[in-house]
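This follows on from our talk about sequence and fold. Go ahead and set the record down below:
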Amino acid sequence: MVGGLLAMLATAAWPLVGQAHPAVPPARLSASSTASVISPSRLPAEPGSELTIYIMTMGVGAEVWERFGHNAIVVEDRSRGTAIAYNYGMFSFRQQNFVLRFVQGRMDYWMAGYPAEDEVPRYRAAGRSVWRQELNLTPAQRIALRDFLTWNAQDDNKFYRYDYYRDNCSTRVRDVIDRTVGGAVKAQSGEPAGGNYRFHTLRLVAANRLLYLGLALIEGQPVDRPITRWDEMFLPLKLRDYLRDVRVPDSAGAMVPLVKNEETLYESHAYPVPDTPPRWGLALLAIGTVMGMAFWWGGFSGRRRRVARALLLVGGSFWALVTGVAGLIMAGMWAFTDHAVAGGNENVLQCSVAALGLAAVLPFALGDRPWALRTARGFALLVGGLSLLGLLIKLLPWFVQANGQVLALFVPANLGLMAGILGWARGGEAMTSEG
C-alpha cells in the first residue's frame, strides 16, 4: 500500500518534471523536489508485494480419507518464479507401527510443500474439483505467513498429532490464516454451525454403507455436541465458504474482505455429496424387525423344523459374535485409546461384550445340554436387557447421542434373539421335566 501511494504521488507530479530549472544543482534540491523527478518504474517495491497467497481447496474423492475434501496454502513468489503448495495432510501407511498407532488414536501427520503447478493436474486426474481463493493480506502479513510456513515445513517442526475433527489438515490451514490476520477468522466465526460433527461425517460417507454404519456405531456423544462455524472448518469446503465472510483491515486500516478473488480451476461432479445424512431409520428398523422375528421363530419352532433350528444356530451365533466383537472394540476404544470421539458411547448397550459369551455357548445350548441352556438363557437376558435399556435411557435428558438408526436395527434384533433363546430353553426344560 505504501509503494502504491508513492507511485500515485510520483504520477501526480510527473507533469512538473519538465518545468524543473536546469541550472539548479541536484545536491541543492529539496526532498520534495527529489521525489518529483524519480521515475515510478524505479520506485522500490514494498517487501512482500512480490508474494501472493492462495487457499487451494479440493473436493471429495473416492477413497475413505478423501471423502472430506482437502486444502493447502499456496505461496506464489513472483521474484523467484515459484509457487509452493503447503499441505498439512501428509501420512504414510509405511509409518512405523502404523496400524497400532491408528488403533490407539495416536497418528502423527506432517506438513510439506510441493510445487503448486503439480496439484491441479493430480486432482483433476482423480476427478476432484479444485478451487482457489486469493487472500487480501498486507505485504507484511504475506511475509510473515511465508516465513512461518517455511519454518513449519522443517523436519523438526512439521509433525503434529492428528485429530479427526479438532486438529486436521483443514484446521491447521484455518489456524495459520487466523494467526496471520490477528485472530480475525475466529473472532468472526462464533455463530452456531448448521450441523455437528456426526451430521457432516455421516453425510460425507453415505456412499459407503458399511463405513456409514461403522462410524454411526463407534462415535459417541462428543460428536453430537453443538459446534460453531469455527469448529465446522474442520471441513475444507466449509473453510472455503466461511472465509468469504471474513473481513480484515488493510494497510490503511480500512476493512476489506479477506478473500480478494476466487476462481474454479476444475469442477467435477464425479462424487456428489448429500446436503444431509440419509434417512435410513425405517429401512434399518425393517431389517432389525425381520431379523428379530426370524430369531424368535427359530427358537420356538426349531424343535419341529430343522430350517428354523439352523437359522437360530447359524444366524443367532453369527449375530452374537459380530455384535460382541463390535462391543469389545467400542469399549476398548472408549477406555484404552486416545480416540476422544469414542467416549460416552451409548451403543455399547446395543453391542454388548456379553454377546461373545452367548455366541460361544449357543451351539451347546441348542444341543439341549442343561448347563448350556441355563448359561445361554442368562447371556440372552443380559444382551436383550442391555439393548432395551439403551432404548429406555433416551427418555432421560443426559443421553443425547443421535443413535436412532442404530437403535432401529439393534433393539428388535437383540430382543428377538433373546426371545428365541428363551423359547428354546423353555422347550428344553419341558422335555427334561417330561422325561
About this structure: Residues 1-40 have pLDDT under 50 and may be disordered. The radius of gyration is 32 Å.
